[in-house]
């Protein structure tokens, strides 16, 4: 058990298939927060594998998602997260008091090539950078 006085903030990214947007968001948050934020991702109907175009687009950023596996959304994952972010895919999550819920309207990368996935990836990165600034203020 950690003896830290302040608990790390935790974020759950939710998308139906947990194969593209939510995986890219989780990979960016894990990498850019440098471990300062606990990261989860899941979907209500997980795909068999992560979108290869999303994997390729993230590889261009130096982030390897090739070993990631889509996971099923559980009530426990929502309960354990401080922030729950859906990815504009109409997924609904259990609502618990005290949680922060956001919906990021993002185009679905499913079935698209890497050229079409890059702008989605870049939008996710911008949102992740703002989320980190909000959840982990710089120590002054």
Task: Write up what this structure looks like.
By secondary structure, the chain is α/β, with parallel strands linked by helices. Helices cover 34% and strands 13% of the residues. It is built from four helices and four strands. The chain has helices at residues 21-32, 52-59, 75-79, 114-135, and strands spanning 10-14, 38-42, 83-86, 100-103. The protein has a four-stranded parallel beta sheet, with helices on one face. The model is unreliable at 1-5 (pLDDT under 50).
List the helices and strands and how they pair.
Blueprint: E1 10-14, H1 21-32, E2 38-42, H2 52-59, H3 75-79, E3 83-86, E4 100-103, H4 114-135
Parallel strand pairs: 1-2, 1-3, 3-4
Helix pairs in contact: 1-4, 2-4
Report the biggest beta sheet as strand number plus sense, adding barrel if it closes: 4 strands, parallel
> How many helices?
4
Helix content: 25-40%
Structural class: alpha/beta
Number of strands: 4
Calculate Rg over CA atoms. Answer: 14 Å
Beta content: 5-15%
Give the low-pLDDT segments: 1-5
N-to-C series of helices and strands: EHEHHEEH
| Morphology call | globular
Strands side by side in the biggest sheet: 2-1-3-4
Intertermini distance: 28 Å
What number is the mean pLDDT?
91
């Amino acid at each position: 058990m950690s003896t830290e006085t302040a608990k790390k903030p935790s974020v759950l990214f939710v998308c139906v298939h947990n194969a593209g947007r939510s995986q890219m968001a989780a990979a960016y948050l894990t990498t850019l927060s440098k471990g300062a934020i606990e990261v989860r991702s899941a979907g209500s109907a997980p795909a068999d594998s992560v979108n290869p175009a999303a994997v390729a687009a993230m590889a261009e950023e130096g982030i390897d998602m090739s070993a990631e596996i889509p996971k099923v959304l559980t009530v426990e994952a929502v309960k354990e997260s401080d922030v729950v972010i859906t990815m504009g895919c109409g997924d609904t999550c259990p609502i618990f008091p005290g949680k922060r819920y956001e919906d990021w309207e993002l185009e679905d990368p499913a079935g698209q090539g890497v050229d079409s996935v890059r702008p989605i990836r870049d939008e996710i990165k911008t949102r992740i950078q703002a989320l980190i600034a909000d959840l982990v203020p710089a120590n002054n």
